[in-house]
Amino acid sequence: xxxxxxxxxxxxxxxxxxxxxxxxxxxxxxxxxxxxxxxxxxxxxxxxxxxxxxxxxxxxxxxxxxxxxxxxxxxxxxxxxxxxxxxxxxxxxxxxxxxxxxxxxxxxxxxxxxxxxxxxxxxxxxxxxxxxxxxxxxxxxxxxxxxxxxxxxxxxxxxxxxxxxxxxxxxxxxxxxxxxxxxxxxxxxxxxxxxxxxxxxxxxxxxxxxxxxxxxxxxxxxxxxxxxxxxxxxxxxxxxxxxxxxxxxxxxxxxxxxxxxxxxxxxxxxxxxxxxxxxxxxxxxxxxxxxxxxxxxxxxxxxxxxxxxxxxxxxxxxxxxxxxxxxxxxxxxxxxxxxxxxxxxxxxx
Length: 349
Hints:
Layout: H1 2-11, E1 19-26, E2 29-36, H2 38-42, E3 48-53, H3 63-74, E4 77-81, H4 99-115, E5 121-127, H5 129-140, H6 146-149, E6 155-159, H7 169-179, E7 182-188, H8 196-200, E8 209-214, H9 225-243, E9 249-254, H10 256-265, E10 267-268, H11 272-277, E11 280-281, H12 288-295, E12 301-308, E13 316-321, E14 326-331, E15 336-337, E16 341-348
Parallel strand pairs: 3-4, 3-5, 5-6, 6-7, 7-8
Antiparallel strand pairs: 1-2, 2-4, 9-12, 10-15, 11-14, 12-16, 13-14
Helix pairs in contact: 3-9, 5-7
């Protein structure tokens, strides 16, 4: 293992491009890794690492992985991923455990400590077969040790996790849900490799994980190329927001009269624009300033209300705006309640 990290250290001086490949020695092989913006992390500019643990047929050059990586880098994240085929010459997705896979994940997740001891946190986005391997690995990995555990975020994403009548979701991912208490599961109701009723009936649903659905198959393919690409964009955006904790809070900007009425009524059913559009327009933290400058520049002051997304999870949707080219949170068939308020900030314009 010392030889392993010595070789990695020698390679670390080359990590100054937008995306580089380095080779991680593992058993009798060297496995190429794709690392985006590593020099930003080395300079303490990108302090968050996301490991993408792929499906067994995926690779870091496929369209979805490229889009996901781009969205994560936009959030000032360093992304590390790989291909399973570089570890196994012949992958049998029905096999549960691989000694090589576990050893590789140990080496992979210890890599940042050797290269960048100053990173703040790391997260996982795992897909299909990768989710199953990751879940099994967490049972005995050194993520259990305190100094390592503190670096890894409780927030992670499971994309199209495998489960069936023979391989129950709760038993397959139990240790995962216990280790990562803020998991987002993204699945399709028609995925033949994922027993969707099991997800809906899971004892961990809305306790250890939140569920988001999409229309398509196990690899996000939809009826048309356009819809498939839309799946890629939506799933990448949702995943990126989740691991960066942008999902945790939502914000509503109110004018003075709306603010006073909300304080009196204890309930906000929507502004005139909200009522016209059929949902309450909200923002993420990073979107608030842009919303104020675009729609409230005639006001002398506004009030920004902060709520927990979890209080509105059943009626909350993140939807794409063609005008601003971003996804915004919208609440359907519900009202904002003053009792759910986290805080309110008065902003002079």
